[in-house]
Each structure stands twice: as C-alpha cells, then as structure tokens.
Amino acid sequence: MRQRRPTLSDPAVVDALAHPVRLDVLSYLMSAGPATASECARAVGDTPSNCSYHLRVLAGHGLVRPDDSGDGRSRPWRTDLTGFTIDPDPENGATAMLTASVELDHSLAREYLRGHDDVPEPWRQVDSHASYGLALSPDELTEVLQRIDDVVRPYIQATRADAPADAEHVHVALTAFPRLSFGKQS
C-alpha cells in the first residue's frame, strides 16, 4: 500500500475524529488492514453494533469504505489512510480531536500497564516511556518532529512488507508542546 497521509481540515471530519472509539477504530484499520465491525470491536474493546455505527460515520466522511474481500456473510471495512495530520486551526475543532487523541494514548498506556506483568519478557525489556525537557524554537521543533517522522515512517504497519515474524503492533505516541507556564527566565 502506498502511503496516504492527508492533512484534515474539514470541521465535520475533524469533529468525527474527536470521538475516541472512532479514532481507535480508524487507527486499528490503518494498522491491521480490512476488518469487520466485530473484529474492530474485539480490537478496541467495544461492541460490534457500536463499532458498526462508528464505521458508518467514518465512511460518511470518506475515511473508511466497505472492502470487497468479504465472503458474502461478513462485511469488512478498510481505509486507504496510513496516517493523517490535523490542520491546527481552532475553527475546525482541532483541539477537541487532539484531546480525544491524547486521551486515547493515555488509555492505551494505562491498559498496557495493567497487564504489564503478563507481557513477554523481551517486550517488557524494550517498552518505553520517555520524557524530555528541550529548549527549542518553533523551527527547531519542526525539524525534530520531521526527523522523528523520517525514522518511524518505514515501520508503519500498513505499508511495511518486510516485518520480522516476531513483530507486533506497537503503539508509538509523541506529544510536543511548549511549557508556557515555565516562561522565559530573565
């Protein structure tokens, strides 16, 4: 699959993604490929009927579509997105969508930590939570984020054809923002 990572600016589309289940289902389809509402429900911890509803909402905004790989009894869905960026314009609802995204990231981290003792040892040795206090200008932050994106992009599950047999779906989240409350020191 070719990479398709649009910048979303339509307020209705951004608003649709401000729902954590929709965001999680879309993320699942981007990484796992075509799946039915029941498969999505198992993956995101929701009900098939609720996932079916959210898939129809996502389809109404052109983010997912029915997949023809079904056997006639099942109805899989797919997305051609490998990621997306949100136009940061506050008029399009970007803040609500970003809030949902951060909440989903935190929820996934809490879920992982609840089962941490049952995670195979090789994964426990490499899981990570890192936090850095950097001194950057806006241009430097743009450069840092682009360099991180350049490192991560070859490993995107939807476009990676050479994943090793022991590869798992790994959630990587990055949040970067100025700590305005710190202010500049005179």
Beta-strand percent range: under 5%
* The CATH homology group name of the domain at 7-127: Winged helix-like DNA-binding domain superfamily/Winged helix DNA-binding domain
Which regions contain 5 or more consecutive residues with pLDDT less than 50? none
| CATH structural architecture of the domain at 7-127 | Orthogonal Bundle
Helix share bin? 40-55%
Shape call: globular
Distance between the termini: 52 Å
CATH class of the domain at 7-127: Mainly Alpha
| Tally of alpha and pi helices | 7
Derived from helix and strand composition plus strand pairing, the structural class reads mainly alpha
Descriptive overview:
By secondary structure, the chain is mainly alpha-helical. It has a two-stranded parallel sheet. A two-stranded antiparallel sheet has the order 2-3. The mean pLDDT is 90. The chain has a domain at 7-127: Arc Repressor Mutant, subunit A. The radius of gyration is 18 Å and the shape is globular. It has helices at 11-16, 20-32, 37-44, 48-60, 94-114, 121-126, 138-152, and strands at 7-8, 65-66, 77-78, 85-86.
What is the topology?
Elements: E1 7-8, H1 11-16, H2 20-32, H3 37-44, H4 48-60, E2 65-66, E3 77-78, E4 85-86, H5 94-114, H6 121-126, H7 138-152
